[in-house]
Amino acid sequence: SHIGFRGGGVFDAQGASWWSCRSQGCFRPRFVHSTHVSHLLMMDVTWKDSPNHVLELYADFTELAFVTVLNPPSETDDVQVNGTYGPSHNTDAVDVHGTPFYIHDCHFDTGDDNVAVHA
Hints:
Elements: E1 3-6, E2 10-12, H1 16-19, E3 32-43, E4 46-48, E5 55-65, E6 68-70, E7 80-81, E8 84-85, E9 94-97, E10 101-104, E11 107-109, E12 115-117
Parallel strand pairs: 1-3, 2-4, 3-5, 4-6, 5-9, 5-10, 6-11, 9-12
Antiparallel strand pairs: 7-8
C-alpha cells in the first residue's frame, strides 16, 4: 500500500537474451508484477527492454505519469528502439488489473499492446 517510483531513472531489464528463447518454450519473466497493491504512483521513470510484459499491475488507485516504456517491435529485428533490436514478443507496456487507473503524459513504444485493460 502507498508505493511510489519517481525520479528520472532508467530500469533496463536487458530482455534481448530472453526474446530468442521464446521459441524454446522458456519462461520469460515480467519486468514488474504487482499484486494486492493499493495507491501506486509511477512518475518520471523509464522501463526498457523487458523480457515479457513490462508493467503487470494488479493495483487499485494507480497513477502513471510521464512514464516511458521502450521495447523493439515484435515481428522484426530490423528496427532499433533506443539502441536495442528485437523482436521482443508480447512486451505489453501496461496490463491494467484494477480501478481507478489514471495514465497520462506517457510514451509507450513496445512489441505488443501499449495498454491492455483486463476485467
